[in-house]
Amino acid sequence: MSKIKKLRSLTAAAGVALTLAGTVAVTPASATTTGHHVAHDIRDHSSYFERDHSTGFARGHSKEFELVGKQTQYEEIDLGKKGVSLGDERVVTEDLYRDGKKVGDHGVVCTYVRVDPGLLQCLGTFSLPEGQLAGQALLHLPAPQSVDLAITGGTGAYHNARGYITTVPAGTTERHLSVHLER
Predict the structure, then answer these.
(1) Which of 27, 34, 78, 171 has its CA 20 to 30 A from that of 92?
(2) Which has more pLDDT, 11 or 161?
(3) Any bridge partners for residue 64, and if so which?
């Protein structure tokens, strides 16, 4: 595999890894408090977002859900010196899916902050019907089999959200995302 193709593949994996999203399929979230599988609709967040009005923060709730991201666009932007150099960017957009239905979009920009060995700073946003989630990761190349992205904030129902998103590549243009929200 050529160096450029390998970098494209690794960057695409980073883009998916980010919570920061190709076409993503979301599957129902599950909870196992009594050994039973309980399906939750991602829009069912009333208890998760119960707020303590004295502090402005939610009262220790968490929520998990699954998405599938399917890449729709990918571009390498060669800035500065010809070839891979500091500041070069990789831009990825994805559609996000749940149960085979498109539920949102994801966009990520990864910037080379070190070339040898490769190190990318990736910043991305997941746009879902309930609001947006922002995330970031520092991706060491070659990329590992899975990457955890930090959730750094959000809007709408995800206001003050924290947690992480685990991204696992499922081919070259699809990834599985496990979103772990904490309040």
Answers:
(1) 27
(2) 161
(3) 180
Residue where the block lists tokens 């883009």: 15
Round to whole Å and give the CA distance between 24 and 154.
19
49 φ/ψ angles, rounded to the nearest 5 degrees? -100, 15
Percent of the chain with pLDDT over 90: 63
Instruction: Report angle CA 97, 99, 101 to the nearest 5 degrees.
Output: 50
Q: Tokens 């991305």: give the residue.
A: 124
Selection from 127, 133, 167 nearest residue 63 by Cα? 133
Of residues 45 and 120, more confidently modeled: 120
Q: CB–CB of 124/105 below 8 Å? A: no
β-pairing verdict for 131-140 and 174-182: unpaired
Q: How far apart are CA 28 and CA 174, in angstroms?
A: 18
